[in-house]
Design brief:
Layout: E1 6-10, H1 14-25, E2 29-33, H2 37-56, H3 64-72, E3 74-77, H4 80-84, E4 89-92, H5 98-111, E5 117-120, E6 140-145, E7 154-158, H6 165-177, E8 181-184, H7 194-210, H8 216-227, H9 233-240, H10 242-250, H11 255-267
Length: 285
């Protein structure tokens, strides 16, 4: 299987923009796709901000010319056919809604070359939930990034029973060559390794909040002091993004999850407060 040199990242939200910039920073030609020019304008702002972050964060310590080269490696487009028409790897980072993802893969199947590997960055869906819509189950798998990819640089690689080992190996190599630490899963697991550890914490925290046991600051303070962790669960919610938290909670039928989803929409999202990306979530930034 040919090496990966060109990549399309579909979705330029908080994490999609990070994935695209990290990939471009490591020398790959990247097509960053989103559905509107307004979304791409926001992506340009995110890329400029990331260039500054990469220069000032000790985890990277990039020079001006390195971030300028990364920006030059990025090509933004609202044309899906243009984005995927001649790439080796597609990384899908669109909203966490199964119907949206399935529709996208149905379109991609006809637009991308047969050589192209498809990878979903889905946090909660199994790749087997999507593989039949890709038109290429053997070249489809999950590639899951954590937020702040330049520092929390894990890349979880998870295939299905249909994934070609050569495609899996190519994505592992790509992850490593793009500055990530590949985390190779041996079988499918909802939530991978990271979210299998993280989601129970966030669920417990949201349950304590909606039950009125304690406010979010008290819950966070308890976790930080008692465990030595740098952040509490509601600080993590803000970083992940409250829209993502809402999408996940709203699909969970439990009464607590539904109440938490309603609270997120009413008290935060409807007011434009979606976390660190907007400057306001559970906390002000």
């Amino acid at each position: 299987m040919s090496s990966i040199t060109t990549v399309a990242v579909l979705g330029t939200g908080v994490l999609g923009a990070q994935i695209a910039f990290q990939t471009a920073f490591h020398g790959y030609r990247v097509h960053a796709y989103d559905i509107t020019e307004e979304a791409l304008d926001r992506a340009r702002t995110r890329f400029a901000e990331l260039a500054g972050i990469y220069q000032h964060d000790p985890a990277v310590g990039a020079a001006d010319h390195q971030t300028e080269a990364a920006l030059q490696n990025l090509h933004l487009t609202t044309d899906l056919a243009e984005a995927v028409g001649d790439v080796d790897l597609v990384i899908e980072a669109v909203p966490e809604k199964i119907d949206v993802k399935r529709q996208l893969y149905t379109e991609l199947a006809d637009l991308a070359p047969s050589r192209t590997i498809f990878a979903t960055n889905s946090s909660t869906l199994l790749p087997s939930d999507l593989k039949e819509f890709t038109g290429r189950p053997g070249k489809f798998l999950a590639l899951h990034y954590a937020n702040h990819v330049w520092r929390q640089n894990t890349a979880e690689v998870m295939g299905t029973t249909d994934t070609d080992p050569l495609a899996y190996a190519a994505v592992v190599d790509f992850a490593r060559n793009s500055g990530m630490v590949p985390i190779e899963l041996q079988k499918e697991k909802a939530g991978y390794v990271l979210n299998s550890l993280l989601v129970p914490l966030l669920d417990a925290a949201s349950g304590l909040l909606v039950e009125g046991i304690a406010d979010h600051e008290t819950i966070d303070k308890t976790w930080r002091i008692a465990t030595g962790a740098p952040m509490g669960p509601f600080q993590i919610f803000d970083i992940v993004g409250l829209t993502t938290a809402y999408n996940i909670a709203s699909t969970n039928p439990s009464a607590k999850s539904q109440e938490f989803a309603a609270m997120l929409k009413r008290d935060f999202i409807d007011r434009g407060h979606v976390g660190t990306s907007s400057g306001q979530g559970f906390y002000t930034y």
